[in-house]
Design brief:
mainly alpha; Arc Repressor Mutant, subunit A; 5 helices; 2 strands; 5% strand
Length: 117
């Protein structure tokens, strides 16, 4: 599991970590059932505060990517298609929000297309 954080990025470290873990789960680098490093161990490895790793792990657990087994550790969740489910939920939330703001569907799609580049 190769993780690295950019200290000069405007993206918070917990979010950088979260995004990298999701990408590794999605591309199969981290398989279901894989045990992740402890919070303290990963924090030491990345030279960041343990609470940063804890926040990333908790958010990934809430999103269904990870499962905590207490003292036994944190593992990649065995549920299939978690990334697709989360993408669909995010798309629905985005669509609802742009409708509330009165933004046209064409403009909303243009924003997404630009953001994905």
């Amino acid at each position: 599991m190769a993780l690295s954080l950019d200290p000069n990025s405007t993206v918070p470290p917990f979010e950088q970590l979260r995004v990298q873990l999701v990408a590794q789960i999605a591309d199969g680098s981290l398989l279901a059932g894989t045990r992740l490093p402890t919070v303290r161990g990963l924090a030491d490895e990345l030279n960041i505060a343990p609470n940063t790793v804890l926040r990333a792990y908790r958010e990934l657990e809430a999103d269904g990517f990870l499962e905590s087994r207490g003292r036994n550790g944190t593992f990649v969740n065995a549920r299939a298609d978690v990334a697709e489910q989360q993408a669909q939920l995010a798309a629905r939330a985005y669509a609802d929000r742009v409708q509330q703001l009165g933004i046209s569907p064409a403009a909303a799609l243009a924003y997404v297309t630009t953001a994905l580049k």
